[in-house]
Structure prediction request, 31 residues.
Amino acid sequence: MIVVGISGGIASGKSFVSKIFAKSGAELFDA
Prediction:
């Protein structure tokens, strides 16, 4: 299993990138 963490400042595209991962079939955990 590969684990990827997405971090960054406000309005840096974190939600956009996580939606792309989710559409490609990745499991998403948003904390």
User: Anything to note?
Assistant: The chain has a mean pLDDT of 91. The chain is about 30% helix and 0% strand. The first helix runs from residue 14 to 23. Helices lie at 14-23.
